[in-house]
Amino acid sequence: MKIFIALLFISFHGHTETLYITGELESKNTQVVLMPLVPSMNGKISEMEQEGKLVKKGDLLTRIDGTSISTQLESQIDDLDNYLATSKRSEIEFEIQLNNAQLDYDSAKINFEIAQMNSKIPLEFIGELQYKQNQLQLKNKEKLFKKATSDLEEQITVIENSKKKESLGFAHKQKKLDYLKETLDDFTIYAEQDGYIIYGTHTWTGEKVQEGDQLQTGFNIMNVSQNNALQIVASVNAIDIPKLSIDQSATIKFDSFLDKSFQGKIIKISSGGSDKQIWGDALYYEATIEIVDSTPDNLLLGMSAQVIIEYQENES
Q1: Measuring CA to CA, which residue among 303, 308, 265, 269 is closest to residue 286?
Q2: Which CATH superfamily is domain 13-29+226-315 in?
Q3: Residues 6 or more apart in contact with residue 115 via CB below 8 angstroms
Q4: pTM score, two decimals?
Q5: Is the pLDDT of residue 9 over 50?
Q6: Residue 261: enclosing H or E segment and its boundaries?
Q7: Domain parsing of the chain, residue ranges
């Protein structure tokens, strides 16, 4: 019997596909300015420096409307002042009560000591009636002394507990005051480096952020970027993420230099995606492409760029 074995050869053939994505030119040396923590749903931008302006470290960038925080701050200062005044009055009252308790204690102690001495006078020197009166007086004075001692100790405990309570109350109110001050300080944002101002864009509309806009905490207001260490940050549909890899080559074209191409490579792919409502319901990730070639000096930060990436599409 002859056995025939058929071998099935499966070969995989691949062909090159091209992925086109768009991004913006920015610098690795960038200060990202976000909407600070605001007590309400949104924070209102009351002041912004002009986009494209070259700012120096320490220059004002933007100011968030802090009217509500200022009102709370003034109220908290008044509340703290009133609390301190009330605590001072209570302290004086407690001191008076303590002094009275101390006087009662001192008086009861002296009377008790006198009664002790009188109780020791022999019966034959003062007679039976006086001797019994002295013994009774000793018991009464001892009872009064014990009560005065207890009252003094109780008053000391009350004062100590009251001081602890006032201290905790003061710390709580001071902490809230410090929080309001820090929050208000955070509403004024300064440049941490020299660079050019680039306004952020609204996630929902894609429009540039402007003075008077209201943004949620954590939303990008603007960036301050230096005109060096340039890179492209592009948004990539989640479907296309598997087509990308670190160090993958890319070709970059700028809107103002369509006749020129620049080489780059992918250096970062975000681990999490976000919605971009202006582009639909899909999830988008950020890919950072480093520019390898030398670039013209007149490239502008925030300039749009097209990134062309070739990848292998396998077929069986």
Answers
A1: 269
A2: Efflux pump adaptor protein, beta barrel domain (2.40.30.170)
A3: 134, 137, 138, 140, 141, 142
A4: 0.68
A5: no
A6: strand 257-269
A7: 13-29+226-315, 70-186
